[in-house]
Amino acid sequence: MKVLIIDDEDDVRTISHLSLGRVGGMEVVVASNGRDGLEMARREMPDLILLDVMMPEIDGPATLAALRAEATTHLIPVIFLTAKAMTSEIERLKALGGLGVITKPFNPMKLAEQVRAIYDARHEHS
Amino acid sequence: MNHTSQVEETRLAALRAYRILDTPEEEVFDDITRLASFICSTPISMITLVDEHRQWFKSHLGLSITETPRDVAFCSHAIEQTGVMVVPDARVDSRFADNPLVLSEPDIAFYAGAPLIAPDGSAIGTLCVIDRVPRQLSSQQLESLQALSRRVISELELRKNVVELKRTISDREKTEQALRESRARSESIIANMINGLITVDERTIIESVNPAAVRIFGYQSEELVGQQLAVLVPGHIEHKGEFLKASFKKAIGRLTEWEGRRKNGEVFPFDMSLFAFETAGRRHFAGNIRDLTQKRQIETMKKNFVSTVSHELRTPLTSIRGSLGLLAGGVFGPLPDEATEAVSLAERNTIRLISLINDILDFEKIESGTVELHFEPVLMHSLVERSIDAVRGVALERRIMIDTSVCDREVLADADRAIQVMVNLLSNAIKFSEEDSTVTVECIESPGWVETRVTDRGRGIPASHRELIFERFQQVDSADSRKKGGTGLGLAISKAIIEQHGGSIGVESEVGKGSTFFFRLPTARPRTVVRKDVVLCCAGSTDSLPPLLSTLGLGTRLVSSPSDLLAAMSSEETRFVVMDVDHLGKNETLEILGRIPHRQSGRPHVLLTGRDAADVLRIAGDQSAILMTTVEDGAFLESIRNASASAQDVLIIEDDIQLLEVMERQFSLWGASVRTATGTIDALRLTREKKPGLIVLDVTLSDGSGFEVVDQLRGDPGLSSVPLLVHTAHELTEDERSRLKLGPTRFLMKSKSTADDLHRVMTLMLDEGKVK
What we know:
By secondary structure, chain A is an alpha/beta fold. Chain A is 47% helix and 19% strand.
């Protein structure tokens, strides 16, 4: 399973990379902003994108919209990663078309499990 | 005081009023004595004034002394007569023969004195003539003497008037000066006030604005004076001040919040304390205005501060927790034992820090009311089950049994939040229980409430801590947070959540035996279906309604056929039905109106639109649930809004203004639209203006009693069924209670009831009203 992580925080990206790669055994590619993320998604065609919500310039929701607007990327499922844990925020992100929402700080030993669980359950949602 | 001394008092007062005693000699008076002396051919003439002890001479021609004691004075006698007193020869007059003034200097033989009569009739002295030889005066001389005595008085009067005039003038000047100063003072205060001050007349036409008001609204004072106040308060312009006038009457003497509009179009919040005053019989209002823009910005900043901070903290914590977690998880290979311990310690504390941040944010949101709770009827049983599921793992770990009794009542609650409270109480109970013991959960029903009790058999809580533990960061033992985990916010959050539900939370405990935490949630009345305010429309010109109605928070369903319409109307969810008569046809509409289903929640409100709506309404007759309206009309939204709000409309009648304000605020918070009255007259007027969903009535009122209000309303067939909550400080007798019955009536004693009780009863009674 190939996952693209888009997050502007270098440290957080390192952790999620390790969590998904080393712990979860997934193939991981990373991008540090929405623009690079789009480019990477087109090139790498990942099975899933882990997308940070708060990023400068093109934020998570805008990146998602751009992904959906393109024929090549519009079917790639996206899981949001957010530091806002409010129920209303989670509802909002789901309504935008996120497959799921994972809140920071996450448990690095369980992130991959969580991601896989959301990914596997995607057909029940749609 | 006898008559004589009273006369003497008056006389002395008249004399003193002239302020003439002991003044220097003056030519005017000397001329008079000279004249008198000349006319009467006497060597001596005097103007004498008699005070308590002496006679004093204002003018003394032919005599050098200026006063003599009163007891030897001839004049003392003269002033007691009305006419001129003549003593032809004092030496042979028994009254004066031994008088020292006769026996020696000035050797008086002849005396004639005309009394000086002040306008009030008091004789204050004499004008007299004296000779050293006996003699008589002719009648002409006597008359002249009297005439001259009157001249003396007129001279004295003249002076007195001049003095008084001067004093009046100076008084007036002083008053004017004082007025000028006071006015300057007021003007300077008004001009330098930080608050805006606007005065308007009875039609809310602006009469004056102070510089602060000019600053706040951005208009020049000339641009505002003479304008309708509505230019500054948007949303009221179309009412031409009518609404403002009504609002003003309500706002007098209180601090009320308004939305204002500046000249540049910016809409901003302000608060205003309003008072009324009268000048020359005309009524005015003055509003003391504070711009709340900045205050609101600060509030928003404050509100966002906690969430911003917690968000900012989360990002670095993600990295820390992540690194530690990966280390502890052995991702980078096995660690030496001590390192494992240190890393897991760091990880544990990081996680604790994260829960602290979460709890602080959560508490802040709930307490400030920024988080919206979604109340719905939910089975208490399912709340308990779901909560136990969440703690089952921990309970198993500590080998603790959870014993529950089933409760099949529905409570009105936000399920997630209620479970949060329940889980918090359960995990506390588990944490503080001995291993292998039992935690009991039981539910007790009472009218209007379900009380849930969580009992542990732990060490108990000392009485001194039982209140404190519901405060932030107050644990019984400060070591607990380290040993047992937890942030010290759990109970504070639980309390905030339960209070937002209108319920209460508490603890009973016995040290060494265990504790019982309990909370009360309001029951959802089983027969009340909580309806989403759905509006049903039959397609036609009503197509534009859904967006319009969503502004009122109402959902809309469009149906196209009459049979669908009837089917949907029997749903309890449907509160309003809008029918386009032109689309359905007159006959079809009438047919549907005749078949409106009766439901538990009563019939839906029907609104008719279209050209033929009036016709249909006439034929259908007076069916109270039917309203005619046109969709395009702004009145449409108004009628929906009114119909929707009427069930929540509470009229509070209470003469204690402070209590009234508190109640108004509370009832508004509880979602009621509130009107208030302090006396019977207002109470009756407001009730007749619009039938309230509930009347809350105090028995003693400013201008009468609650009994009168009830008597009057009972006589009105439209109003005799209004639900009534009697809220009184007095114990009422059975008889009094029966006299206070209106529609469904309940009684609450002020001293024995809490805000919770009021809230519960309000909800209950409004609900009952709806079901009817």
